[in-house]
Amino acid sequence: MQVGTYFFKQPVSTVNIALKLTRRFLGYKPITITVFEGMSNTKIANLLAKQITKFSKKDFLDQATSFEGRLFPDTYFFSPYDTADDMIYEMNQNFNDQIAPLKMGILLSGKPLSQILTMASIIEGEAKYNKDRHLISGILWKRISIGMPLQVDVAKITYKQRGLPDVPINNPGLASIVAALYPEPSPYLYYLTGRDGKMYYAENFTDHRKNIRLHM
Predict the structure, then answer these.
(1) Angle at CA of residue 134, ends 213 and 146, nearest 5°
(2) 138 vs 213: CA distance, rounded Å
(3) pLDDT in tens, 66-116
(4) Where does residue 125 rank: exposed (0-12), middle (13-18), buried (19+ CB within 10 A)?
(5) Which burial class, exposed, middle or buried, applies to 92 when counting CB atoms under 10 A from its CB (0-12, 13-18, 19+)?
(6) Which of 4-8, 25-29, 120-124 has the highest average model confidence (pLDDT)?
């Protein structure tokens, strides 16, 4: 059976019902919603409100409070009859399906999933390319291990408190989750995005300031 809300204009046979449920013939045109990597729950709610007439942002945000970081970015086909709870369930179920192959790695990492997701949400906002995601992951985990503040622009709270934010700041994609789980060791402790869009790394603050002068 395919998940969805099905509409039948008239009585149909059991065989036809079975065919519709297994082939996802919903009986109406679904609403296509694309949730992009790095969108927060609030941004997802705003997106849904623009495209679904009877959608309630308040209901969605009230119910999605405990799902920040766990609404997987993807393209969804929602019914006009879907509730906020239906949408959250589908996005969270997709999240669970996507990270299922990572469960052993998460267990062996010694870190709770909540921390990995929070780190992934920061990486999502800090890096565009996969090679940089793993390097930045290594740098940020290293900062935490030595008691250095993260001080990342995408999470201003990290300038005020040490360690990770209390909850993910957005809903990261799979690449950022994998990067948070498998950081790449390096001698670097600093990085920045240059005006050319490239990432520049430094082992110490002196070299970091030099990168700032040259590339920003």
Answers:
(1) 75
(2) 24
(3) 999 999 999 998 887 788 999 999 999 999 999 999 999 999 999 999 999
(4) middle
(5) middle
(6) 120-124
Alpha helices in the chain (DSSP H): 14-23, 41-51, 57-64, 84-99, 103-109, 113-126, 130-145, 174-181, 205-215
Nearest one of 17, 12, 3 to 79, comparing CA atoms: 3
173-213 pLDDT, tens digit each: 999 999 999 999 999 999 999 999 899 999 999 999 999 99
Three-state DSSP state, 110: coil
Closest by CA position to 137, among listed 147, 125, 114: 125
Query: How far is the C-alpha of 131 from the C-alpha of 54, rounded, in Å?
Result: 42
Q: DSSP string spanning 7-69?
A: --SS---HHHHHHHHHHT--SSPPEEEEPPTTB-HHHHHHHHHHH-TT--HHHHHHHHGGGTT
Say if residues 100 and 176 touch (Cβ distance below 8 Å): no
The residue behind tokens 């996507």 is 98
Other CB atoms within 10 A of residue 67 CB: 17
Pairs from 57-61 (Cβ < 8 Å, separation ≥ 24):
59/83, 59/84, 59/85, 60/84, 60/87, 60/88
Q: Which of 173, 3, 170 is nearest to 73 (CA)?
A: 173
Phi-psi region of 69 (alpha: psi -120 to 50; beta: other; left: phi over 0): left
**Residue 173: enclosing H or E segment and its boundaries?**
none
